[in-house]
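User: I'll paste a sequence; please echo it back and then give the predicted structure.

Assistant: Echoing your sequence first, then the prediction.
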Amino acid sequence: MESPGKRRYAVVGLGHRAQMYVDALLGDWSDTGEIVALCDSNRTRMDFYNRRIAATGRGPVPCFGPDGFTAMLEGADAVVVTSVDASHAPYVCAALDAGVDVVVEKPLTTDAEGCAAIAAAAERSTARIIVTFNYRYSPRNTALRRLLADGAVGEVTSVHFEWVLDTIHGADYFRRWHRDRTRSGGLLVHKSTHHFDLVNWWLDASPELVFAQADLLFYGSENARGRGLGPRPARGTGAPSADTDPFLLDMSRDERLARLYLDAEHEDGYQRDQDVFGDGVTIDDTMAVLVRYDNRAMLTYSLHAHAPFEGYRVAVNGTEGRAELEVCERAWTPPRAAVDPSARSKEHADGAWERLTLQPHWSPREEIALHDGGDRGRAGGGHGGGDRLLLDDVFRGPTRDPLSRQAGYRDGIRSVLVGVAASTSAGTHRPVRLVDDGTRLG
């Protein structure tokens, strides 16, 4: 039975990413809303989350298949969309047309057609969309935005942004459904949408021209054969070499993964532990992108998905100086990370560090103190301390925020279309233009 004053949330897509929102509504944000329905193509995964709900003393909530999504919306004030990326647009549009608010994980969708459909639905609906770009809320990224907004480097002329994924995090995209470009849009959409949104937000500018190169140079069967790796198991679970091969994931050794995915295979055949050097990988692992903005600033961006450490470097050049943000999220990758759940976590990882510096012209470099941003509660959780702050904005509503961290659908579209344009450019070897403030392909 629903509680007075609480918003009613339905959740569609009950994989790993849903847990952050489910746990939030069962825990620190339970006073603001409650879960009233679950929707997924796999009943085992819905049962997993219903047991999680029941463990807090609540009763189970109704479960719906994709065909029941519209009926499910009748009992909801808002829907949280954490399904496979390529399915976002139909769910978002259906919710908006039903007058139901939407909280959608990045990326908003995977292609220009999905972006156009969501934009049209948003413009005819009274409901609202929040795109959950949690990296905007990370205190270090907020601090850089504040520096730039305050004019610390003058007018921005260029940004160099390098992001490296290690062989724990990066490799995982090549085990999962993300390895299929038709489902994820590739890493330039699924992962880089985070990064393109950060640059759009840091600069408060719109992308207008994109050129890129991308390739699969490390993962996949062809690269494995080229390096002489020899025959490999199709998956990690149950493989005799899982103890010694750092690229194999044995889900039976991780209780949560076993219950959420291994126990669910009998329903849909989805294997979350495919070999990263197997057949069927259609996404890239090495990418370089050049973007021109409407304020004439230029971005050089690279994403590398097989590094020995994880982190990113951002250098912002302006007419009055330079700011640099350097972040090491995990300093090295333990060889048993694939079979040791604790080794896969970046929370409190040994050797992690971050540094923001500012160097005006004719001055020595100074280090800028990083803090929690002075928001409600405390910073903490994943994504560089941004998750808790994001969840506060999602479930309690944003406070007055001069940095405009809460993202709407147009922000989501801009970030997706930079990735779509980059993928198109890499395939055609031609630049791709964006128009209408970066919300349409030219």
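The CA atoms of residues 191 and 412 lie 13 Å apart. The longest helix spans residues 409-428.
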